[in-house]
Amino acid sequence: MSDAARSSQPLMACQECDLLQRIPVLPVGGRARCARCGFVLAARPRDPLELPLVLTLTALIVFVVANAMPLMDLSAVGRYASTTILGGARQMWLDGERITAMIVVFCAVIAPALYLLMMLAVLLAARRPPLPHWSGELLRWGLHMQPWAMYDVMLLGILVALIKIAQLATVDPGVGLFAMGLLALLLPAISVTFDAREVWKRVEWKHGDDLAAAFADGNYEERGR
C-alpha cells in the first residue's frame, strides 16, 4: 500500500494497549492485529451478511421459546411451581421488588427483542442494496441495544440460585432455561460474525456518496458497531 493510501486509512486505538494505528483495507477473511500486543483490531468475515442473518433468525426463534416455556420446575413438601421469565418478573413486582422486575424485563425481554428485530430488518434490507438511509439509524440503535441483552448474566444468576436451593427442593430445568443458554451463545455469535462496515457501504445516504464512504471507512466503533 502506498504512503498516500495508508495515510487515508482511519486511526484506531487498540483496546488492550491504546496504541494508535491505521487499519489497512482487509481482504475477505483477513484480520488486522495490533503491532504492539497482537490484539485483533478488525476483521472482515468471509460471509459478513448471510451468516449473521441465519444466526439472527435462529436467535429470534430461540428467544420466543425462552420466553414462552418454563425456566424450571420446583417441587418441595408436596408443592409444585413453574414459571417463565415474565412470570418471575411479575412475581417480583407483586413482592415489591419493582426496580428489579423492570430491570429483568428490560434486559431479558425488551433489549434482546429490539436488538434482534432491528438486526433482522437491516440484514434483510442489505440483501438488496442500496439500503435506505433509515437502515443506518436502525443499525445504530440496534447495536446500542446489544450490550443490554444480558442473558449470560441472568443465566449465571439462575444457576447460582439453583445451587443454593438444590438441598431444599427438587429442581428440574425447563426448556426455557436451555433456550436461555443457547441465546447466551447466539447473541455473541451474531456480534462476532457481523461486520457493520459492510452495511454502512450499502446505505444510500441523503447527502451523497461521500458521507456513505465516511461511515464505511471511518471509525465505526464510535458510530455503533
TrEMBL record:
It comes from the Bacteria. InterPro entries: PqiA-like. The keyword Electron transport does not apply. It holds the Pfam family PqiA. The keyword Chaperone does not apply. Keywords: Membrane, Transmembrane, Transmembrane helix. Coiled coil: none annotated. The chain crosses the membrane at residues 51-72, 99-127, 148-169, 175-194. This is Inner membrane protein YebS. The lineage of its organism: Bacteria, Pseudomonadati, Pseudomonadota, Betaproteobacteria, Candidatus Accumulibacter. The gene is yebS.
